[in-house]
């Protein structure tokens, strides 16, 4: 090795997680990502409701499964199933697909915390890993930091493996302002109240990733990472780009 790299946790990771957003990758693109930087991919989300219309769903799931990469369907799909009273059908399909992780969010529909936590408990009780998500996809919707903390704590208590802090795939809502600037007071309050390793912060943009890594260390869990940006993020984590080369965790 030309230089000594900082310590990096190994799979299956509880911290330093890179959560990747698959917006419709082909099998060839999945193979390319895994060939180049598969060891850094911890979980893949099939965005929104894309799983319902993609024509390569089964072979794609098989490819991820072969490489030991868990897959979760987009939380919007769960929200639609809740809205339409079709949660049972969704869960039956998830089991048929061999998916063991489910995302429960309320960024599009209105769902009270009690109902959401009851669903988390139920799914965990049925042997599923639950990723819950807090925050609205509406960039104009503002929620007080203490309410974020209350919801996050309640969902972790209900059994969620990790709680995702909403930012959308554009990085312009939830924990970010519409222009992509971090809501620093909000994020710091969350990090002060909640074990940072139990959080996944959506940070699709490089400047946002750099901010989190500088603020909370190279093993901060980051989500909604574009497949083409996984290698870039890993070099940021390891101090191999100028943005984080001087950073000491």
Describe the structure.
By secondary structure, the chain is an alpha/beta fold. It has one domain: Aldolase class I (TIM Barrel, Alpha-Beta Barrel). It is built from 9 helices and 8 strands. The protein has helices at residues 27-37, 57-66, 75-83, 87-97, 113-125, 145-158, 184-193, 206-216, 230-237, and strands at 18-22, 43-46, 71-73, 101-104, 129-134, 162-165, 199-202, 222-225. It has an 8-stranded parallel β-sheet with strand order 3-2-1-8-7-6-5-4. The longest helix is centred in the middle third of the chain and has 14 residues, at 145-158. The chain is globular. The protein starts with 17 loop residues before the first strand and ends in a 12-residue tail after the last helix. The mean pLDDT is 95.
């Amino acid at each position: 090795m030309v230089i000594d790299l900082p310590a990096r946790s190994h799979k299956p990771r509880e911290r330093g997680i890179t959560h990747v957003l698959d917006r419709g990758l082909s099998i060839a693109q999945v193979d390319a990502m895994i060939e180049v930087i598969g060891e850094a991919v911890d979980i893949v989300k099939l965005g929104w409701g894309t799983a319902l219309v993609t024509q390569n769903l089964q072979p794609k799931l098989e490819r991820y499964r072969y490489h030991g990469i868990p897959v979760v369907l987009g939380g919007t799909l769960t929200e639609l199933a809740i809205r339409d009273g079709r949660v049972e059908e969704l869960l039956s399909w998830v089991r048929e697909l061999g998916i063991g992780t489910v995302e429960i969010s309320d960024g599009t529909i209105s769902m009270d915390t009690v109902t959401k936590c009851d669903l988390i408990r139920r799914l965990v009780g049925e042997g599923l890993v639950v990723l819950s998500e807090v925050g609205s996809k509406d960039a104009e919707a503002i929620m007080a930091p203490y309410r974020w903390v209350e919801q996050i704590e309640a969902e972790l208590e209900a059994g969620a493996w990790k709680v995702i802090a909403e930012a959308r795939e554009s990085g312009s809502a939830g924990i970010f302002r519409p222009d992509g600037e971090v809501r620093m007071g909000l994020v710091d309050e969350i990090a002060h109240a909640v074990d940072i390793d139990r959080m996944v912060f959506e940070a699709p943009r490089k400047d946002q990733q750099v901010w989190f890594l500088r603020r909370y260390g190279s093993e901060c869990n980051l989500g909604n990472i574009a497949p083409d940006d996984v290698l870039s993020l890993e070099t940021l984590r390891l101090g191999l780009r100028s943005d984080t080369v001087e950073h000491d965790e």
